[in-house]
From TrEMBL:
One of its GO terms (molecular function) is carbohydrate binding. The keyword Hydrolase applies. This is Chitin-binding type-3 domain-containing protein. Keywords: Disulfide bond, Hydrolase, Plant defense, Signal.
Length: 562
């Protein structure tokens, strides 16, 4: 790898011409901008009647005076006055010439400026090398060498020839931007410790720490060891066992599919350290109450999603939850539900969460499975990444969500995971989320109703009257709350009619990394070589997954990391 370990010499001070001292007639003689030409820092051009100066090497970047921080510095309007004709030389010139520097034998740095060539035409601003020195033409000239005894003064001596300037220089190590070198292909090398530190800095807030704590997980080996009544069960599992026994599980879900076992339920709880956890702040004494209410809310929602909804059943509808483990009418048969038409799309979602295929080469089907009825590859992929740290596990085998403890873990996952600008349902229930003035004015306040808005607000909420689905959820919540001894305050907002969608003014934080399009004059090409936090749309990189900041920078800037 090519490394930066040296500093390049600059031209002597005589080369740094103060642009403000140029006369209008001199400026008027600069060449017209050509989109095919290469320009280096300091070169002037005329474009659409205005004069610009290149800040650094460029080709194809059109001058634009509305971009003050771009590659072209706007100098001013072109003076269209025709320059006066060159005067006839004095027959007996008696100027005070500048003393010539000591000659340099040979020319050690060919290629930076073109060698002066007799017979060529040069215009104002053209620079040439001649016998180891650099000269600049002050006006049009031909067949007058820079060191001619009969000089008219057309050539201005700038200094000794220096090593050529690389249009893509190897950057010096810069602790301010993390760039530590350059690869042979021209891409840059960035410091891993710098990127890790930047990620930590941008996510150092109470909101991020609370979110990370609520989605913390245990390894799958520990989860698989969970069983009813085991002394080794994690504390949050023991709390749930105290609230819901195997017999009560049977009572709450008498019509459930056989895949929804009590053991799978405990494993789903045990995967997530923050669900039904013991709080360490002023909510510590409320830990059991928060757990019970969380269960009542979660049970109500997946009863709506997976319930039998059978009016002829001997059981009330709130007890008909978990009837479906796979979406009704869907199977892996070729003629069945698809949920895979998005797999052919050429976008970042299919790049990050590539669809799996069956033995016949057809895309597998991502129809609803589990208590949350997880659907579509762009939901299976993130869930797989969260559970296995590998997006392909469930993308290749989505039916694991139906057949294992993942059938209930998917519901817990969506209960604890935020979807900015929407908070997580857990943070609504435990009081972590506090509505902003905008939230309050648009009816987004703590209570069961806003959890419906989080789950399916676009379909069930925002209208003036309560939709049937929302009415069902309220009924199921009341049933499960009573069964778990959860009081429902008289002023709790249970419905979601009239609630406006969450927006950028909601009390939330940014869940995703996006390219920082800002300009940085000290970086190569003026680019930021950074990513920023956003909350109003989804990207491939999550602020809650360590290392995704680095992946974001790599994606947009093609850097390698060391």
């Amino acid at each position: 790898m090519k490394r930066s370990g040296f500093s390049r010499k600059k031209l002597v001070q005589g080369l740094l011409l103060p642009g403000l001292l140029f006369s209008a007639s001199a400026l008027a003689s600069y060449p017209q901008y050509n989109t095919e030409s290469v320009y280096t820092g300091g070169e002037y051009v005329v474009f659409e009647g205005h004069i610009y100066k290149a800040r650094w090497w460029t080709q194809g970047d059109t001058p634009d005076k509305s971009e003050p921080y771009g590659v072209w510095e706007y100098i001013g309007p072109k003076d269209d006055t025709d320059p006066e004709p060159d005067p006839e030389p004095d027959p007996e010139p008696d100027p005070e010439p500048e003393p010539d520097p000591e000659p340099i034998p040979g020319d050690p740095y060919p290629g930076q400026w073109p060698e002066y060539k007799e017979g060529s035409v040069y215009t104002a601003g053209d620079k040439v090398r001649h016998e180891g020195k650099v000269y600049e033409a002050q006006w049009w000239t031909k067949n007058e060498a820079p060191d001619s005894d009969a000089s008219t003064g057309v050539w201005k001596y700038l200094g000794e020839a220096e090593p050529p300037t690389d249009p893509n220089p190897i950057p010096e190590p810069n602790p301010g931007n993390g760039i530590i070198g350059q690869n042979p292909d021209g891409s840059y090398i960035m410091s891993k410790s710098f990127l890790d530190g930047r990620e930590a800095e941008l996510t150092d807030s109470p909101e991020f720490r609370e979110a990370l704590a609520s989605i913390a997980t245990r390894d799958n080996t520990t989860v698989e060891a969970i069983s009813p009544g085991a002394a080794s069960n994690p504390d949050n599992v023991k709390r749930v066992e105290a609230l819901i026994s195997p017999a009560k599980w049977d009572t709450l879900f008498p019509e459930r599919n056989a895949a929804y076992t009590y053991t799978n339920f405990l494993k789903a709880v045990g995967k997530f350290k923050g669900f039904c956890a013991t709080y360490s702040d002023n909510r510590a004494t409320q830990s059991n109450d928060i757990c019970a209410k969380s269960l009542a809310v979660m049970f109500a929602h997946f009863t709506q999603e997976t319930g039998a909804h059978n009016p002829y059943s001997p059981n009330p509808e709130w007890k008909q939850g978990l009837f479906f483990v796979r979406e009704s009418g869907c199977s892996s048969d070729a003629s069945s539900c698809g949920y895979n038409s998005e797999c052919d799309a050429d976008n970042w979602q299919t790049e990050v969460w590539p669809c799996g295929t069956d033995d016949g080469g057809q895309y597998v089907k991502y129809f609803g499975r589990g208590a949350k009825q997880l659907s579509y590859h762009y939901n299976y992929g993130p869930f797989s990444d969260f559970i296995f740290n590998d997006v392909t596990v469930l993308l290749n085998d989505p039916d694991r969500v139906a057949e294992s403890w993942l059938n209930l873990a998917s519901a817990v996952f969506f209960f604890v995971y935020p979807q900015p600008p929407k908070p997580s349902m857990l943070h609504v229930i435990d009081g972590t989320w506090q509505p902003s003035p905008s939230d309050i004015s648009e009816k987004r306040v703590p209570g069961f109703g806003v959890t419906t808005m989080i789950i399916n607000g676009g379909i069930e909420c925002t209208q003036d009257t309560e939709k049937p689905q929302s009415v069902n959820r309220i009924k199921y919540y009341r049933g499960h709350a009573e069964a778990l001894d959860v009081p429902i305050p008289a002023d709790e907002q249970l419905g979601c009619a009239g609630i406006k969608a969450f927006n950028a003014d909601s009390a939330s934080f940014g869940l995703y990394w996006e390219n920082d399009w800002g300009y940085n004059k000290d970086n190569p090409g003026g680019k930021s070589f950074a990513c920023k936090v956003i909350s109003n749309y989804q990207t491939a990189h999550s602020t809650l997954k360590k290392g995704d900041y680095t992946k974001c920078v790599q994606k947009y800037y093609g850097v390698t990391v060391e």
